[in-house]
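User: My instructor asked us to take a sequence, write out its structure as tokens, and then describe one feature of it. I'm not sure where to start. Here is the sequence I was given:
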Amino acid sequence: MDTPTQKGKTMTTSQNPTAADYEKLARTLCLARGDDPDAMTGEIPQWEFESIDEDNVCVTQTLETLDDFRRNSPAWREPGTREEIDGGLYWEKCQAMQGQTRCELCIVDCEEFRLAFQY
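Assistant: Let's start with the prediction itself. The structure tokens for your sequence are:
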């Protein structure tokens, strides 16, 4: 399966993200924002309210490891403050290269690949 990475290149992986992978990303994002992922928003838990799934344009796959992100992020244009949240990485505001939009970034490890939420 060819999938765009954060850098606009394609990668090949034999595994597609599962519902559990998307849930892991949504839960990590909730925790990073200081929200309880299991708190109810109406009749659904907060982590589901985030609508993080295969149709969310803010979600991408990458083969870069969490260690790659730890090692490379200090060299970003504006690395911001990295937090380690529930086994994932989170930046409230960062900019990898000049000219890119500053964004919120959350990355979780899904064994063969990583899922990233960039907003």
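For the description part of your assignment, you could build on this observation: The CA atoms of residues 56 and 86 lie 22 Å apart. Try explaining in your own words what that tells you about the chain.
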